[in-house]
Specification:
Elements: E1 2-5, E2 11-15, E3 18-21, E4 24-27, H1 32-39, E5 47-53, E6 58-64, E7 72-78, E8 80-87, E9 98-104, E10 110-113, E11 117-123, E12 128-134, E13 143-145, H2 173-176, H3 181-186, H4 193-203
Antiparallel strand pairs: 1-2, 2-10, 3-4, 5-12, 6-11, 6-13, 7-10, 7-12, 8-9, 8-11
Length: 208
């Protein structure tokens, strides 16, 4: 299993070793000790989610108040999604920077996003099945969003599906109503980098 830090500090691409034979494939998509050694603190699993999305479904950009925030360890068990992390930490040198990882049922990569980062993905195939391990439970009053098509963020979303057919983004009513990055910033709704750094640093003392 290898870890590669993304252009957004606090986010990593994780590539597992796959063991295949005529029966199929086996892999470990999460390992606690390598995670601790690579990230610097353990992953405290508090909730696990699963979503199934048609081609073109666009979910995000979602984030949670820090503290406590919600770190996510995400993989795609079936199909394919373009997974995106966005730096929403006010005061971060990489504020508004984004990066992507293709999560699919071929390379079976995962992505880890620490607290204070925004998360979104676009489904590239019908019935794409995404698994999320989360460091805190869903708490509606602490959950927020930024519009995933905000031109200021400028995410370059794919326009064709895995099979080459055209994609038309499908957003939930909640995501359609999400503020732009500028609106969220003006409203004081975004995480502050210093508070996020202090909170994440406090996790470093946790034992594996």
């Amino acid at each position: 299993m290898t870890y590669r830090e993304l252009a957004v500090p606090g986010a990593w691409e994780i590539t597992p070793v796959q063991h295949g034979d005529p029966r199929g494939v086996f892999l470990e998509y999460f390992q606690g000790v390598p995670f601790l050694e690579s990230i610097g603190h353990r992953f405290d699993l508090r909730q696990a989610n699963l979503s199934v999305s048609a081609a073109g479904v666009l979910r995000g950009i979602h984030y949670a108040d820090v503290p406590v925030g919600q770190a996510k360890y995400v993989t795609c068990a079936k199909g394919a999604v373009l997974d995106v992390v966005v730096d929403l930490r006010v005061g971060s040198p990489t504020f508004a920077t984004w990066d992507t990882v293709l999560l699919d049922d071929v390379d079976r990569r995962a992505i880890y996003l620490s607290e204070g980062l925004g998360h979104a993905f676009l489904s590239l195939e019908d019935d794409s099945t995404v698994l999320y391990m989360c460091s805190s439970p869903f708490t509606p009053e602490r959950e927020h969003g930024v519009h995933p098509l905000d031109p200021e963020v400028g995410i370059v979303w794919p326009t064709t599906a895995r099979d080459g057919s055209p994609l038309e983004p499908q957003l939930s009513a909640k995501d359609l109503a999400a503020p732009s990055l500028a609106e969220a910033l003006a409203a004081g709704a975004l995480p502050r980098a210093d508070e996020v750094d202090a909170y994440v640093a406090s996790l470093g003392s946790a034992e594996a």
